[in-house]
Design a protein that fits this description.
Elements lengths: L1 H17 L4 H10 L2 H4 L1 H8 L5 H22 L5 H30 L2 H37 L12 H25 L13 H16 L4 H10 L2 H7 L1 H7 L11 H30 L5 H9 L3 H9 L4 H30 L5 H41 L2 H9 L14
Helix pairs in contact: 1-2, 1-7, 2-17, 4-6, 5-6, 5-8, 7-8, 7-13, 10-17, 10-18, 11-17, 13-16, 14-16, 14-18, 15-16, 15-17, 16-17
Length: 417
């Protein structure tokens, strides 16, 4: 799940940059691919209607594998960009369907005790995806470009096509291999008790879930929280890596894809994992309500590391890695509060799973909107002024966190799907 999502929404941004796109278009095109993951609650009921969840998992994995192989082949065409973007757009909806079906297998095949046992493995597996994608694949693209095809890594353009074709063939091979493995070992996944039997019934469930969602007390404050809590991260997510690889004379740090992959995929992801672990322990010991504003500070204030790096443009890899690790550690630490708030305050009710998906969908919508405009803003402002803007963008997060309503006890997480 994570490999597909991260390849489509993050790795492609670096690829677009390598192929010669400016920051505005590279961030915009990659951000459009988040849309399917944002609206997936709208078509989740329809996945319940036909055959088994395993069937949808296998079909989606087959389509994803063949799709990425098709992208790799299409990149040999003269006008490959349009074909590639259409393929990515289709793959994003297939990937979102895979997420729905695989979550369904997990939820319906295991009892609550076994779910708890495997929850850590599931979380670890999801976090391996970004390490492989933003770390391993980006690193390998740079290594192939420089050491196998012997091209200049500092020049962006069509010479990068050969390296990225190999990357997409690798993603295709991994996905198809997983499909073969899942064909042998994955359980079918039980049908939900309230699974719709027809398209009409699916629409009725979807409409009722919307009605009950907007009937929640202080729902607009919770919507604002879900949308704005990670606003500054949305502006930073695509531009941070661009800043790393842009040449020094354009205000960047002039790193190669290889170094970017090591810094983000190793140090950055390790910091996120450690921060998430400690953040979960922190909330478990002190409770969410007294810690939520502290967690908001953890997410937003460390963004200043990118402002400092843009001002001084260090060439010391230890300092650069430390800056990224600090931002990622506190992001992981604070983001725990966001997810727990959605589970404990936004989701409880008749359609817990769907309403939780609405909350994560609002977060995805924020990531898509901010990512779409972030590159254009950076080009207009320059890196220093843009990172000043990122710090200003933290203010709405503080305001909505301060006003976030609490209508359920912190322990009220065991609610029906």
């Amino acid at each position: 799940m994570a490999l597909t999502y991260m390849t489509l929404t993050s790795v492609t941004a670096i690829m677009f940059k390598n192929l010669g796109m400016d920051n505005g278009k590279a961030a915009e095109y990659a951000s459009y691919l988040i849309l399917a993951y944002t609206v997936k609650p709208l078509f989740a009921p329809f996945v319940e209607m036909y055959r088994t969840k395993k069937f949808f998992v296998l079909c989606s994995q087959l389509a994803i594998g063949l799709g990425f192989a098709g992208v790799a082949l299409a990149m040999a065409l003269p006008n490959y960009m349009m074909v590639m973007m259409i393929a990515f757009w289709i793959l994003s909806f297939v990937g979102a369907t895979q997420d729905i079906a695989q979550d369904g297998v997990y939820v319906t095949s295991l009892d609550s005790k076994t779910q708890s046992l495997y929850c850590g493995i599931q979380s670890l597996s999801w976090n391996i995806g970004p390490i492989i994608a933003t770390g391993g694949l980006v690193y390998l693209s740079g290594w192939l470009h420089s050491h196998y095809f012997h091209h200049d890594a500092t020049i962006f353009g069509s010479d990068w096509i050969a390296s990225w074709r190999i990357i997409f063939f690798i993603v295709a091979a991994v996905t198809l291999s997983m499909a073969i493995w899942h064909l042998r070992v994955m359980p079918d996944g039980a049908r939900a008790d309230n699974a719709p039997g027809s398209i009409k019934a699916a629409w009725e469930i979807l409409i009722d879930s919307f009605k009950t969602f907007f009937q929640k007390r202080d729902v607009w404050l919770m919507i604002a929280f879900a949308f704005l809590f990670r606003l500054s991260i949305g502006f930073l997510e695509k531009i941070g890596p661009f800043f790393m690889v842009d040449p020094i004379n354009k205000g960047g740090l002039g790193l190669s894809n290889e170094l970017l992959g090591i810094i983000y995929g190793t140090y950055g992801l390790s910091a996120v994992l450690l921060g998430s672990l400690l953040g979960g322990i922190f909330v478990a010991r002190r409770g969410l309500r007294p810690t939520l504003f502290i967690l908001c500070c953890a997410v937003n204030i460390p963004n200043i590391t990118f402002l400092l790096m843009s001002i001084y443009q260090p060439d010391n890899l230890i300092l650069i890695s430390a800056g990224v690790a600090i931002e990622k550690f506190f992001f992981g630490f604070g983001s725990v509060g966001f997810m727990i708030y959605l589970m404990q305050q936004l989701a409880p009710g008749k359609y817990t799973t769907t309403h939780y998906a609405f909350g994560t969908g609002l977060m995805g919508l924020c990531m898509m909107i901010t990512g779409t405009v972030s590159g254009h803003l950076q080009q207009s402002l320059g890196y220093v002024n843009y990172f000043v803007f990122v710090m200003i963008a933290t203010i709405p997060s503080f305001l909505v966190t301060w006003r976030a309503p609490f209508h359920h006890q912190d322990t009220d997480t065991n609610v029906s799907a």
